[in-house]
Amino acid sequence: MSRVLQLHGGDGGGDGTATTGRGSNAMLLRSSSVVEQKLQFSTRPMTVAFKDLSFTVMVKPNTYPAAKAGDKAPAPAASASASASASIDVDAGAAAAPAPRGKKQLLVEKKILKGVTGSFESARFTAIMGASGAGKTSLLNVLAGEVAAGTVDGTVSVNGQSIDPGRIMRRIAGFVFQDDIILGTMTVREAITMSALLRLPRSLSLETKMTRVDIVIQLLRLDKCADTLIGSAHVKGVSGGERKRTAVAMEMITNPSILFCDEPTSGLDAFSAFSLCQTLKSLADAGCTVVATIHQPSSEVYHMFDELLLLADGRVMYMGELEYAVEYFGARGFSCPRYTNPADYFFMSILNDATHSVFVEDAEQEEKVKEEQEEEGKNVIVAPNPLPVPMDLDAVADFLLRDATETGSYHSAMEDIVTKQESPINEKADVRVQRLLNLWPTSEQSAFIKNRADNPAHTDGVKSTDLKVGASFSTQFMFLGGRAFKNALRNRFMVRARLGQTVFLGLLVGLIFLQIGDDQASVQNRTGALFFVATNIIMTGTMGTMTVFSTEKNVFLREFSSRYYKLFPYFASKILVELPFNIFFPFLYVAILYFLIGFQATATKFFIMAFTTVLLANCGAAFGLLVGSMTSDLTVAMASVPMILLPLIIFSGLLLNLDDTPYEFYWAPYISPVRYAYGAFLNNEMDGLVFTCTLPNGMEHRGLGCPNPTGEAVVRNLSFHTLSVLENCIILICIWVVLLGIGYTCLYRGSRRPSGARMLSRARSSSTATE
Ligand SMILES: Nc1ncnc2c1ncn2[C@@H]1O[C@H](COP(=O)(O)OP(=O)(O)OP(=O)(O)O)[C@@H](O)[C@H]1O
């Protein structure tokens, strides 16, 4: 099916022009011409059905009040979920039981989704609503195969074909997550362009892709901030709402047949939220299956949705036509009062215990509304505009009291407040919620939804053409290389900090060891200076890369899981782009200190020392990348580095003579890059040196007869004579390559689908979409 999405342009508040900002080819595109264009959406209708979906995690008991007396022990996940949708066991949800043996005895089960059954239809805009913690995000994560830990059970199918969400869903659907992670040094336009270049089919021309970028920017009213940086904790960038809209644009541009958005309107003002939902609604009208979790939508936004999935306590309270929801709850004793936003009513009066307010314009309307509410037997506060809703009873009473004092009116409203009528609405929220949850599986509507999930409107499964195919290796490599370079340069703070650090430490070491001379004391000073250079370089190289990578890693993981690119082009471009920086700074460092200290003043020796320093710095960077890949948290990474590096420094040959290495640690010097760099430094610098000393008779003497007569003797004493400069450098190169290899492997393992999703795929091994 191919439909056309009409653009709602011209409301962007811009000046009517949009700068495309494509280097020297930058052109101005008249807004009017953009809005006249149509974005061709070639979406295939897709129904996403999910049956008996359960998601259980293990948590520490104190994080979940489950071990109370009287709680039922939960059934095993599989059986619980198997029966959940048919007959929902109220206690099973809250229950948590100690795991049977071993370490897991400390943990208890927490059921987050409990047998959720339903379907999302094509060309429908579905809202997932529910109180905070109801399981909305968890449901989307399960559907995206993005479950980091825990057990998932149940089935997910697309157009009748059972799929493994982690493997298939991410390739056919677009996901806008709650935490929109975008590289802070990109501009809005660059972020959307990245999505277009890396995720749109290769068959589309560059021109078409860039035109789409312009159109989507207009569509999401991002033209004003298109060339503003996304920003980060350190750099001010676009607003939260603009960032959210950018995240939506990055998905929208790929023309997904299915679009899942987790709280797309959070952080947006009322109009931006309305406008964004209008765009999402247009997408749905164009044939896309659009699903969005949403908190307290305004009345206008609420009525834009076609369907509603109301979740509570990880279970379905209602699913189906949005308009029918009011009737559904009304038939069960929860009539939504007139003039009231049903979303507010669901949140405030069904899911929670707040009393509802109704706005009226004048006394006449007040009387009318009160009569209607009395007829329906509802406990409703009739309040004058502009009272904000929802609000608590005391606040309303205060307001009315003030108002009554000033105007002498609204006494009747006060009476309403104090004389609450008995109605189902006065049940405690948790009792009410559980009652409604238990009513759902027995309702006709539930049977209808179950039938719809069992018999989807479209049954042609997932085809290979539905799966997103990324850009070619060369495009990925070129784009990522360019981005990484810009990122490095735009990270001015980091560049300046590194430059400052290099110059400062270079000068400091140079001045401390200033003009070292060739007497006996210079032997210790030389070995000390060289050792300090080695340890300093490995530490700064490691910490610098690790800190930067730890912050970038989440961006990588998000982009990788959204199939922007493969790991190899990312990794290769990152190493390649950082190489110039990892050459320049170590070289500068050596250039500053070398002649200040007074090392042997020959070009060869200088360049050998600089080259060795560069190699060591790159080993440090590779090690930093490795630690960053292995750890999920910067604090853990920071703690790990000294734990590994300090022992390697101890075994590098100066602090402990290599020949005296304890037997148990005989292997340690062999894996220490500091040892090889130091070995190369020593052999390079000591070669050809003859030291002076003062004999007992006061005569100055050179060479033989002195405690340390020559550089070679010093090298031999320190047991560094076994490897030449060249051999040390070759081993350093090998260590660098090995560290990169291990880092790559760790990143590969860390970026694979999380365990929960794997469990689902194992459980449903029949899931076979054509790849
Ligand atoms: N991996 C996990 N480990 C422990 N608890 C979890 C995990 N994932 C989700 N939860 C818990 O499950 C419940 C549902 O979380 P979820 O994020 O799905 O709720 P939500 O409805 O999206 O809430 P909100 O609207 O506040 O985002 C919460 O109580 C949350 O703390």
From TrEMBL:
Region (Disordered): 1-24
Subcellular locations according to the entry: Membrane
Bilayer topology annotation: Multi-pass membrane protein
Transmembrane segments: 499-517, 529-550, 571-597, 603-627, 634-656, 725-748
SMART domains recorded: AAA (SM00382)
One Pfam family, short name: ABC2_membrane
Record keywords: ATP-binding, Membrane, Nucleotide-binding, Transmembrane, Transmembrane helix, Transport
Top-level lineage group: Eukaryota
GO molecular function annotations of the record: ABC-type transporter activity; ATP binding; ATP hydrolysis activity
Gene Ontology CC annotation, any one: membrane
InterPro entries for this protein: AAA+_ATPase (IPR003593), ABC2_TM (IPR013525), ABC_transporter-like_ATP-bd (IPR003439), ABCG_transporters (IPR050352), P-loop_NTPase (IPR027417)
Major subcellular location class: membrane
ABC transporter domain segment(s): 88-338
PANTHER family: ABC TRANSPORTER G FAMILY MEMBER 28
Protein name as it appears in the record: ABC transporter
